[in-house]
Amino acid sequence: MNFDLVKLALAALSVAVGTASGVAALLVDFKDRVTGRITKWGRLAVLGLASSFVVGISNLAVDYVQKSRQAVEASRRAQAASEQTLQIVNNLNRTLNPFKDVRVGARLSYDFGLPELIGYRDRLDREARALLTELNDAPGRNLPGRMGIASVRADGVVSAVAFPRESPLFPNEATERAAHAALSESLLSLVFFKTPLDREAFGRLQLNPMSVNPGADITMHLGVAGKDGRHVHFEYDLDRKRVRWKICGIPAVMDAWRSSGRIVSILDLPGSQLAVHFEHQRVAGGLENPDIEFVHLAVAERQGWWLRNSRFVSHRLNSGFEVLEYRLPDTVDEMLRELTDRGAPSEIFCSSAD
């Protein structure tokens, strides 16, 4: 509706009625001079005044409606401008906080209790304990190329030892083939879902590097090679009799990711879901699922993030594999507070044994 045109028409009508009433007052009598009653011209004049009043009120009403609509439109435009500005700021923040240059670490262990592995575990336990006296007397408590100390109990007793790939403690490829395969080549997979999957959909995950999971926003498959002395180290827990992997800072090359484009910034991560799976080279009967102590993510130059065992939820997939689920907190502040918690492990956990 053209409010200005309506207001102009009403104003013109009001002026016309007022003018006509004024002219009539000069030319005719509104009252009978003998009886004092209002003549028909008088009644017409009263009607004209009433009409002029109604026209004036209508004009005010039209003006009020026009200004109200203008105020609503101005408010809408201001809100749209504010939302656009907020979107620009948000996009700028996302640009300034990219999810890139990711390096992945983890610490996990197996008990090597399967028949084809237990022989190696028994040899490792026997020979590691035999070297403890020599290790304690060695300079720096380290036997280069053979064994070093990984951890010590409060009473000073060595609780875990570290050994490099070239150590005699590493599985023999000819006589301990299953153990050698398990320690030589493994695969650490991380799959991010911006919109979390329900339990049923989670059970259908496919973790083969050639598989594509519907709804996955970032898929990383990281080769964990035993010969990679910089990023992969091995330990033996003397108390628990478990073989332990220490994976440190393996670069997750972005060109090798499968990405939907929905997670490009750290700001896209809150509320998302992460699936973590560690797969070994196949051994007869299948290797039992690992005990993952923590996963460490380093993003660009930021402080590392610790995903601790207590927050993982274990799921058995339809394929029989176990996969761990980690739900990230719903806000950036909560996420950063949880993942950089001072209660998380703080040591640099990739020191070489040689």
**What is the count of structural domains?**
2
Q: pLDDT below 50 for ≥5 consecutive residues: which ranges?
A: none
Largest sheet: 8 strands, antiparallel
The radius of gyration over CA amounts to 40 Å
Order of helices and strands: HHEHHEEEHEHEEEEEEEEEH
- Structural class assignment: alpha+beta
Secondary structure tally, helices:
7
The fraction of residues assigned to DSSP E strands is 25-35%
Short recap of the structure:
The chain has 2 domains: 3-94; 97-339, no CATH class. The chain has 7 helices and 14 strands.
Defining traits:
single chain; 354 residues; alpha+beta; eight-stranded antiparallel beta sheet; 25% strand
Describe the structure.
- By secondary structure, the chain is of the alpha+beta class.
- The chain has two domains: 3-94; 97-339, no CATH class.
- Helices cover 35% and strands 25% of the residues.
- α1 runs antiparallel to α2.
- The protein starts with a helix and ends in a 15-residue tail after the last helix.
- The model has no long low-confidence stretch (mean pLDDT 80).
